[in-house]
């Protein structure tokens, strides 16, 4: 089983709090984040790392300094010294989301925005594109982002990242409670979560066991939680 956590950084205004929170990540990671030109990119990168660290430590009952976070050659994150833990992170604009548990999991969030829907022909499989064509024009953009996040969550669960073409596999959407993908004789399951009307959020795993809800924090709430409880 796994859990899903979300932090909104909408009210993350003070740069001094960003500097303060850097103490909870490695110097190497902090130096990398501070090279980002945009302050919002620094915030998203920092909260992504700390969100994962906080709840991994909570799950394992260990100190922050006792876990080593790394990525594989495709960019999939993992806990180097606790291989029983699986986790995945995504962020879009104000939201950072993280799924953590003991089974393969991928998560993706995207803000729904104006996009050239011609792209659908390049990133969807033949079956997916045919289903997309049948969607009414008023719903097409929302459906595009649903399918996009489903597919992204799958390649993130598999750990292939951008090395796996999005049109190389097919997502079957029977209804909102029955979404799956058959890949190399294995079945993967999906769930869409309604976080915000302006976003699509999808999760993929190899088991049909999903949390009923997401634990959501605003920035101040999460900041205080970390400051009081994350032991170095």
From TrEMBL:
Pfam families, per database record: AASDHPPT_N, ACPS
Domain of life: Bacteria
GO BP, one annotated term: lysine biosynthetic process via aminoadipic acid
Signal peptide span: none
Span of domain 4'-phosphopantetheinyl transferase: 104-188
GO MF, one example: magnesium ion binding
Entries under SUPFAM superfamilies matching the protein: 4'-phosphopantetheinyl transferase
CC cofactor: Mg(2+)
Coiled coil spans: none
InterPro entries found in the cross-reference section: 4-PPantetheinyl_Trfase_dom (IPR008278), 4-PPantetheinyl_Trfase_dom_sf (IPR037143), AASDHPPT_N (IPR055066), P-Pant_transferase_sf (IPR050559), Ppantetheine-prot_Trfase_dom (IPR004568)
GO CC, one annotated term: cytosol
Domain 4'-phosphopantetheinyl transferase N-terminal residue range list: 16-99
Keywords: Magnesium, Metal-binding, Transferase
Family (UniProt): Belongs to the P-Pant transferase superfamily. Gsp/Sfp/HetI/AcpT family.
NCBIfam families: pantethn_trn
Protein name per Swiss-Prot or TrEMBL: 4'-phosphopantetheinyl transferase superfamily protein
Organism of provenance: Clostridium beijerinckii
